[in-house]
Amino acid sequence: MSPQRASSEAEPSDIDSRPSRSAEALALEADARLRNDIRLLGRILGDTVRDQEGAHVFDLVERIRQTSIRFHRDEDSSARRELEIILDSMSIGETVRIVRAFSYFSHLANIAEDQNNIRQMRSRNGAAGSPGLGSLALTLAHAKDAGFSAADLRHFFASALVEPVLTAHPTEVRRKSTFDREMAIAALLDRLDRVQLTAEEAAASDEQLRREVLTLWKTNLLRRTKLTVLDEVANGLSFYDYTFLHEVPRLHCVLEDRLNEEDDNPRGELASFLKIGSWIGGDRDGNPFVTAEVMRGTLRLQSSRILRSYLEELHALGSELSLAGNLADVSEDLRRLAQRSPDTSPHRRGEPYRLAVSGIYARLTTTAARLEVETRRLPVGEATAYASASEFKADLDILDRSLVANNSRVIARGRLRRLRRAVDCFGFHLANLDMRQNSAVHQRTIAELLDTAQPGTSYLALSEEARIAQLAVELRNVRPLISSFVKYSDETVGELAVFQEAAQSHTRFGADVIPQCIISMTEGVSDMLEVALLLKEAGLIDPSGRCAVNIVPLFETIEDLQACAAIMDRVLSLPEYRRLVDSRGGVQEVMLGYSDSNKDGGFVTSGWELYKAEIGLVSVFERHGVRLRLFHGRGGSVGRGGGPSYDAVLAQPGGAVNGQIRITEQGEIISSKYSNAEIGRSNLEILAAATLETSLLQPRQSAPRNEYLEAMEQLSNLAFKAYRGLVYETEGFVDYFWESTVITEIATLNIGSRPASRKKTRAIEDLRAIPWVFSWAQCRLMLPGWYGFGSAVESWISQHPDKGMPFLKELYREWPFFRMLLSNMDMVLAKSSIAIASRYAELVSDAALREKIFGRIRREWHLSIETLLEIMGQQRLLQGNPLLERSIRNRFPYLDPLNHVQVELLKEHRAQNPDEQVLRGIQLTINGISAGLRNSG
Predict the structure, then answer these.
(1) Catalytic site includes residue 176
(2) Contact 105, 39 (CB under 8 A)
(3) pTM: predicted TM-score of the whole model, two decimal places
(4) pLDDT band with cut points at 50, 70 and 90 for residue 504
(5) Active site includes 599?
(6) Average pLDDT over residues 496-500
(7) Residue of 599, 612, 632, 831 with catalytic role
(8) Rounded Cα gap, residues 610 and 192, in angstroms
(9) Nearest 5°: phi and psi at 136?
């Protein structure tokens, strides 16, 4: 595995776009084409700015860009003064126009880079290309070489689960209106790549590009109103249109064909192992706007989208299946299906397949009415609703079997095959919606229920052991805890309503609609038993102990990660809980939180404690004979656990994947990975390939040698001390953070429905991880993605002079976990700029505090880069990843000016400048910087 891979840190996906030596010429050609695309879009944007805003604005943009390059490259003090003079001389109106110009260039450069990735991917996947790292084709070849047969792989996928889970975490700053225009520009670039245009067509294409760029220039970058939860749901559903509805079925079909090619006797269809999950509309942790009513609306929107898709496909299928009864034999089942059709059109007489399809169509429109979802499709006649998605698929299977039995397999392998697979993957619910709530809310709800039912219980005053005993008794008790004669608090009423809505949705859409209940901030066994009791009260656990929902603890802080193995050991030992796990097929899911553990203990310690937690959980679960499924709550940025998914999965300790994995996809990462079908398909394939490779082909070991584990433990402790010492133990650090970043101004952006802090305080502990990381990214320090590493290495070497740097270099060469850790730091430090960050430090009013803290950060930044480069054997950051290096370097001339302008606008805003354009300008810079960094939260 390559230690430095292109990642979603700067690329739209986990696709490895680095060239091998044999492909160097192709890579250089691709790089030249990328520069041409960037120049083309830059020229059109420049023409638009000159035409719309005047030559003086265009000239100002160029002066700022050139001066910014000098400042970034050399920390040139004269360039710094010149920049300040230029920026001070601009009016607020001019400043906003300048910001818009640089912001739009960042967006257009992203489009060009995305297109370049698609171009390279097509080149690798062409007829003469060899399968790349992370492709299923290469992983299947490795499996074959390792002695696994097609039957073995079918058996593996029969119990496998790969599930990216979309969340509405507010790091996507783009409006859908601008996003749509960007997609139109991307489509035009793609056409230029694929089609040989005539001179007339080329001129028309250029004009269309100019039209789209002008429309983009005239479209507001910022939302003027706050998103509702259902707005977020609707935005999330657009990615099904872009990618999931087509590519999830297609991936299964391609994999099935590859396995059949290797199998002399193909045995049935491949199990559907790739699912799409969602938190949007079900995540109540810290979001008071997610209610039972909103959850009901979410499920209706989801169901409406998938049923509409099925009806559209059935309509097209009816047009295609024009086979005449006198020319094509049909099965008896198909004949009966056709006879039951309410379609009385004389045009369909003698066309049994069309009659059968219209009958299925009629039943599906009736089903939509039963589910109370809108499809905008009229029925062809009266018909009985389907009781379940499996009943719908059974009718489609009749079509398939009849075609195959009568020498028309090639027809069955077209639209019908993809539709049948879609039904298997999406059901009537589209996405598996997780419920999530903070353990403290569950705790208060249960306390009120118990204290009301049994006055004097004083549940909140009980010890953990006493709570466990009390809850175990209640789980065995058949009498209901909830009374209709009691008036409960608003919070308890709201929580009970959500669980009752979940039970009703199971009846309406099937058990897969809400398969998980996630407990944020799980700290003990009682947190899990409280949720079990709430599920029991809602009827989601029956008297026999059969549970309809997975209870999923989420361990988030460093302390909780260290305790999670012991907590799971204890809860799996309780008969009352173990029977619930057994009723779920002996599978227990555990979620690990990357974001809060990083904010709590720093990047190095978070990564290490997560790794150790997995080792501990694997051991506990093996001892209990329970299958472990890990759910990775990764953010988009390295500071929140992000980085390449393929490397992250392969770096898991032995036994931690075991054929099943769920991973969150958050904010702007969703659009960068899944807004384009080709890139989306490749990202889905990468997750599937990594899961297969890690589960079957990687040796079962936590690290090559125990001394590696000991060294990492020592490094983690040293990094933890350095990080906590700065963030939580340095007097005045909170003031420094709030004054030197845009944390206050981020809250004014309408990018999500959830508040930025858990409580109304300035404490770092109460701040959510997203705005914490987002703020450090905006000022170009990226502190959560590296701080503490340099001093940890320096101290470790001084304590171990016998091992020293050569041992750490060996660690990097031999251990995928350590290699991934450093590769991610390499990427995040490449985006940082200590020169830019120094300008934000000037915003801190207390000069002594500013020098004390920024001086400390500056020293650690230099030390971290020096030690990182020495361990990795590089002369500069990203030396081993030249395409990503150039990508980031090409952005700086357009990204840095946004930072300089942002600093000046922050000074104006905090000096109480009443001009509303000041705040709007700050918001635009946040948008542009976020676009330039590609993922910043």
Answers:
(1) no
(2) no
(3) 0.89
(4) very high
(5) yes
(6) 98
(7) 599
(8) 46
(9) -65, -35
